[in-house]
Design a protein that fits this description.
The chain has 3 helices and 5 strands. The protein is α+β, with helices and mostly antiparallel strands. It has one domain. It has a 5-stranded antiparallel β-sheet. A hairpin with a 2-residue loop joins strand 1 and strand 2. Helix 1 crosses helix 2. The chain is globular and about 30 Å long. The chain starts with a strand and ends with a strand.
Length: 98
């Protein structure tokens, strides 16, 4: 699968891909109790927990990127509930959009 969007913060328990730059910034800096924050979180894709990916993605935070990877529904299958970084996408590559 190939997805395109705005990368948020990628470290520790969080790495998300957002529809807009505003959503990425809102989640990073926003009020966790606001409806806008919750809406941005509902629309994001969580990206896998690989430390190497985080090191590469660090320089691309808040940039528009294309990520190629495998979809993973482990945390969204109705049986399992995951906290923090769900890993909707197991990334293989990431490219910066110029």
């Amino acid at each position: 699968m190939v997805v395109r969007g705005w990368l948020g913060i990628c470290s520790g328990n969080d790495c998300g891909l957002y529809q807009t730059l505003d959503d990425a910034k809102l989640v990073a800096d926003g009020d966790h109790l606001s409806d806008a924050w919750a809406a941005a979180m509902d629309k994001r894709l969580s990206i896998g927990t690989d430390t190497y990916f985080d090191m590469v993605a660090y320089h691309l935070q808040f940039k528009e990127v294309v990520i190629r990877g495998t979809v993973n529904d482990h945390c969204r299958n109705g049986i399992t509930f995951c906290f923090d970084r769900a890993g909707d996408i197991d990334p293989e590559t990431i490219q910066f959009i110029i």
